[in-house]
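Issue 218. Parser rejects a valid record. Input:
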Amino acid sequence: MTLPPAPPLIALRGVTRRFGTVTALEEIDLAVSKGEVVVLIGPSGSGKSTLLRCVNALERPDAGEVLLGGERVDAARKDIDRLRAETGMVFQHFNLFPHLTALGNVALAPRLVRGQGDAKARALLGRVGLADKADVYPDMLSGGQKQRVAIARALAMEPVAMLFDEPTSALDPEMVGEVLAVMRDLARDGMTMLVASHEMGFAREVAHRVVFMDGGRIVETGTPVEVFERPRHDRTKAFLSKVLRA
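Output the parser choked on:
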């Protein structure tokens, strides 16, 4: 007997988000399965960041709905903090607390919410290659190290999925690789990931699916081979011809 397919872990159904007269997202339909890595690509202003913020309830859609594990994500929910904690969010900028050490930044939320000690936070710092930086303050860390601390902090609440919003865009080129290496490890470990990125090499290597967005819409979606080597839409071809040539 064949089991029915599992419902998606993340689902956006007809999601539209407007800011005044600007439509940032228009009727977005997207489903992400457990363990899947989906990379969002497209020009700046195409809606990638807004999409991620809707998944994490940092933005509220004007129409449509977002589901996480079958539960509707709505900022008006009384338990929205619980649901939001199910998705670890990593932003372009690190937003670390400057008065806390790397360990303090990672351990803070589990300590306040769950009364946990520091052992798990130390283990997460080790996982991102920063075990020796536990007692170091953010102003003494490189940009790549700060972003790895931010990833460890997002993992500390044991999310079911990770959301990455251009996590390498604020880094010097030599620091990009160390952050992408951590993300590759998460993907290999089976973490569900929804990633907005300009790192085309990462998308080719790690993504199960690539989604090209433009003007607040999903223009094209497919495997990395389909999107990068056999794009169907002229807008996708034009975008890739520029970014892959650069």
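Fixed in the parser; the record now loads. The mean pLDDT is 93.
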